[in-house]
Hints:
With about 100 residues, the protein is α/β, with parallel strands linked by helices. The chain is built from one helix and nine strands.
Amino acid sequence: xxxxxxxxAAAVMAAALQAADHVVVQKDKAFHPNHIxxxxxxxxxxxxxxxxxxxxxxxxxxxxxxxxxxxxxxDVVVVMKKPxxxxxxxxxxxxxxxTIDVEK
Length: 104
Ligand SMILES: [Cu+2]
């Protein structure tokens, strides 16, 4: 029983280690890069490198989120929960678009 628990713990740790971080910088009213590939469990780190507030939200079925008001210099982390195409926009600057292809 003890061995099974330690095997399960190792499996959970391995899954956590596989998750990757993807940095998306908001600069000059654009997402850089504006298209990324990620896996379920990966973290998207939004870094506001402009001198004014941004936002990032998605109405996509795969990963709905809204980070709210993101101040200059602020980092916000969003974890991808489901596979699918995630279209991200900034509620403050409608010209800003990011596509995240999330795989299993
Ligand atoms: Cu913006």
